[in-house]
Amino acid sequence: MRIGILGCGRIGRVHAGSVLALPDTRLVAVADAIHESARALADETGSDARTAEEIVSADDIDAVVIATPTTTHYDLIHALASAGKAIFCEKPIDMSAARIRECIDAVNRANIPFMTGFNRRFDPNFARLQRLISEGEIGNVEIVTILSRDPSPPPHDYVRTSGGLFRDMMIHDFDMARFLLGEEPDMIHAVGSALVDPEVARLGDVDTAAVTLTTPSGRICQISNSRRATYGYDQRIEVHGAKGLLRAGNVHQNTVELATRAGYQSAPAKEFFLERYEAAYRNELESFISSVRTVTQPVPSIHDGLKAQLIADAATESWKTGRSVQI
Amino acid sequence: MRIGILGCGRIGRVHAGSVLALPDTRLVAVADAIHESARALADETGSDARTAEEIVSADDIDAVVIATPTTTHYDLIHALASAGKAIFCEKPIDMSAARIRECIDAVNRANIPFMTGFNRRFDPNFARLQRLISEGEIGNVEIVTILSRDPSPPPHDYVRTSGGLFRDMMIHDFDMARFLLGEEPDMIHAVGSALVDPEVARLGDVDTAAVTLTTPSGRICQISNSRRATYGYDQRIEVHGAKGLLRAGNVHQNTVELATRAGYQSAPAKEFFLERYEAAYRNELESFISSVRTVTQPVPSIHDGLKAQLIADAATESWKTGRSVQI
Amino acid sequence: MRIGILGCGRIGRVHAGSVLALPDTRLVAVADAIHESARALADETGSDARTAEEIVSADDIDAVVIATPTTTHYDLIHALASAGKAIFCEKPIDMSAARIRECIDAVNRANIPFMTGFNRRFDPNFARLQRLISEGEIGNVEIVTILSRDPSPPPHDYVRTSGGLFRDMMIHDFDMARFLLGEEPDMIHAVGSALVDPEVARLGDVDTAAVTLTTPSGRICQISNSRRATYGYDQRIEVHGAKGLLRAGNVHQNTVELATRAGYQSAPAKEFFLERYEAAYRNELESFISSVRTVTQPVPSIHDGLKAQLIADAATESWKTGRSVQI
Amino acid sequence: MRIGILGCGRIGRVHAGSVLALPDTRLVAVADAIHESARALADETGSDARTAEEIVSADDIDAVVIATPTTTHYDLIHALASAGKAIFCEKPIDMSAARIRECIDAVNRANIPFMTGFNRRFDPNFARLQRLISEGEIGNVEIVTILSRDPSPPPHDYVRTSGGLFRDMMIHDFDMARFLLGEEPDMIHAVGSALVDPEVARLGDVDTAAVTLTTPSGRICQISNSRRATYGYDQRIEVHGAKGLLRAGNVHQNTVELATRAGYQSAPAKEFFLERYEAAYRNELESFISSVRTVTQPVPSIHDGLKAQLIADAATESWKTGRSVQI
């Protein structure tokens, strides 16, 4: 399998590392709007630095990883689909559901494999949790609880253009809810406030939020997000079912415990998302390449990308109107 | 301090035990609609078996514990208030907020001490959690998460008359939310379904439910309830604040861990609420008696009883209408 | 069952509480060298204050709890045996194995029930651990590890007369080793030092010690003791077997966890032995009385008391000589 | 830094991976008695397949990793020392302390950097534990407890030539004891038995063993080993000090917990030593190369290799004679 990577920022570099580690897979070329970034990554990985256009039209590349800014995804997906390349695209596919639908059309017409980069499905803990559910360990799912807090808030510039917390942060949890509920949620209720940084309210966003999703059969999912957690990257999920409870706890920095007069003290959760989800990123790309190789449709698909976006849109509307919204 | 107990069922007996264990406190008399129950408890505790009326009018009793069925509370509170007795009343005070307001008037007119039996505030874990919040350990409270699942559903007869899950079960969590949020919640959104037992839907109730509360300053509380938990009585609370996270986990049956090929296995949570909250019941009555003795108003007060009931009413309305409701 | 208690100190009072809580059991009388102590406990418990002699010869007492200083045990056991009373005796029975053997003769001649107060066997956690072993959950026992640390060292006066750490503190662990190994240990090796308090060395004792026991079939038990633990009363046991591992962890003060930049902090272990072993003391006396009632020999027996003492003697010799000692 | 690797088995391949991941470090050549193994690793890593002799005398290699069978170490160390190469040597350096001393002479004469591959010092958990000790978090060290159990016993062939459990397995724990005690142990007492596999006894070895080490000032270390653990690779260390307790727990396969009627079940410990100590192997080689680069003596040094071997010899003697042995 011959791979090209578009975008040589933090995420692009992670995917490059994953490609290098996979057997029978070759990183052929990388591209970036800043050519020096592409040059540097190409040198480190023994690949070519090319332009995005060259990668789109290359004969020696089978599959392309899109790790560029969201605004560029739409055009790249159309071009790559026309060129018949398999596509791995970082989330979100686009900020507009209508435009994602156009991407779906392009992908369908070209009949190419497409994976949306919801990496958390590939976290070994969350993947195992889902597998145990699907194996019936806890019976029917009844309540899903997702607690997600980032170590620290993003810069104001990011907040201005991200589409808001529900679209840039909680979207991961919406995908996880769909992954675990075993049924599509059809109603959503959202609340939010700016408790970490009042400036966020002036920018029209929230930094603390909670959502309730329900499904037609009455399953419930509660999600809460905060842009700040002093104790590391807090990523916990639990699923209450008819026969038991499954939960995946945080990944901590180490196993050392100190016991003193003050009590028992153990390490904070891992802080940096690339470290926390290191295995998830690796497994995700492996799954994509394996799907392309075996000509099966990758999961999460482009439809999964659309559905999470639709939930994020509905969450934003619910937060703004104070009303429950049909998804 | 000379105590009378009205109601010699499960809870009345627990309170009798607490009275016996307290120094300088004497259990004078007990009463029950079934006189044999009163007789039996009186014999075990070395107290008198009397009628409720005799206890209300007794000269040798300073304070009375009401542990009778909810429908009798209203009349007993009025009679005891007229008689000038200090009152400890099991929750809920009454199913109707209007009638609770009338009880408040009676208590105010009589100027007597009154405690509402929200025992969980006196659980050593939850009490400590609240104390650490009030000492500023996690800064401003931002998100409260309450997970509460009963070991097994109540009989259908109970469901028919209990006022519904939000009033008979989640009311404890509403009181806990008020206890921990540091601000009165003013909006509520509730969802619910009958997933444990479809018959519950036909009885007009739910057995699985989730609520979001918000406060004027934007603090958020998420609560979820289930009438069934295979792994014991599941009672967990966590509070996310500006400077950190506090959580109180379950109380397990023992500390033994078995590690085998299948992994590490530890004990279920304690199952029975009287065992799980043993210390809470003891501490609660001790706090009541100490307040009466020092002539300070007991907490949780009769107003706390009313406020939790009002939230439960609003939750019920929100669940039925699908709309957020102002409290 | 009619009970008398000899010794109204800390432990005597605990046993009085246990007797009061047991059904069909009556605390008839208590005695203490300091008559006011007996008087006070008698008043609190509604029993008589008598002399030890009166209790020994009383017609209205079936079983007696010996909770007096160790030096008095020998005479009391002989007197009570002659009087045909069932005996519960706090450990150690006596500081001299030869004198314990004489007590055994007296008990055998009188054919009375006798329990040695090794309360830890009745701790719900350790009892469960042993039950799981005997049910075969981990197959044959191979390695037992016992970690035992007291919250703080005893006064020098106690050290002078206690017989030394191996006899006054580790003796509990020797009994636990016998309880769990499933085979009598026949060799011991001990080391010790005075690291907590150098004065202890001048008093001829140690405050930090470690022992290895082996059994004829090659099972191994490692024990370590310290007279000081800043983080509470540290009492942990684990048993490694052919099919798995069992361990019983500490009992903590509460379940509250605080997560901040510094990590996750939870409560110290319970500090006070009467609180840590509250259930053990209660269960122990219940077991004694149940044995007396059903005319079965109580366990741990007087022989268990002797055997632990013999191991403690051997440990002391091994520590002093630096050689392994046959038990 | 230009690296050569001798031995392309499991461990040699791990070190090759570590070299590839290090910046400014190049894997120049690999060698193996089975040339195809060298060929295969060379191809995967873009390095040369050479003979050991060629690597010893190569001009384009600065440092060499010895990952060949123990019996070859002596000659290779002498040859590499003569050639002035920096040496990283897997433990044990040699089965004979006398021959290790000759290696020390050769290394001293050549004045080359030499690291002994006690990888566990570089495990992030154990390294952090040691750092916290050295920063005074628990005051003076008093009792070190090391519990080490392999997932499954080695083949009989290995047992025949390994030098015995104390030399091939517990040697890691002896190095860890020296790493943590803060003082050289001077006395040892060892016991052992063949409980996992009786055949091991016929081969003159044990599969279950326990050791007590003491230091001149009275610090104590207890170690126990088993060749079998059903629940994963069990590697736990705890250190009791004057001011508190430090412990490093196992590394588990995932964070998922399943709660059902049977209790709470979580994942076994990681099974495979290369996975369990993945970070340790990486950090170890990074430390070696950093020492060579900065011309500081690597730690653990060749003397650390000798000292652990001397303790293993003393343990073996103590086990055979039943006597405590001076180290």
UniProtKB/TrEMBL annotation, chains A, B, C, D:
Coiled coil spans: none
Keyword hit for Mitochondrion: no
Domain (GFO/IDH/MocA-like oxidoreductase): residue spans on this chain: 126-246
Organism domain of life: Bacteria
Keywords noted in UniProt: Oxidoreductase
Molecular function terms from GO: nucleotide binding; oxidoreductase activity
Residues covered by the Gfo/Idh/MocA-like oxidoreductase N-terminal domain: 1-117
Record carries keyword Oxidoreductase: yes
Pfam families: GFO_IDH_MocA, GFO_IDH_MocA_C3
Entries under PANTHER family matching the protein: BINDING ROSSMANN FOLD OXIDOREDUCTASE, PUTATIVE (AFU_ORTHOLOGUE AFUA_2G10240)-RELATED, NAD(P)-BINDING ROSSMANN-FOLD SUPERFAMILY PROTEIN-RELATED
NCBIfam families: myo_inos_iolG
Similarity comment text for this entry: Belongs to the Gfo/Idh/MocA family.
Protein name as catalogued: Myo-inositol 2-dehydrogenase
Organism of this sequence: Aliiruegeria lutimaris
Lineage of source species: Bacteria, Pseudomonadati, Pseudomonadota, Alphaproteobacteria, Rhodobacterales
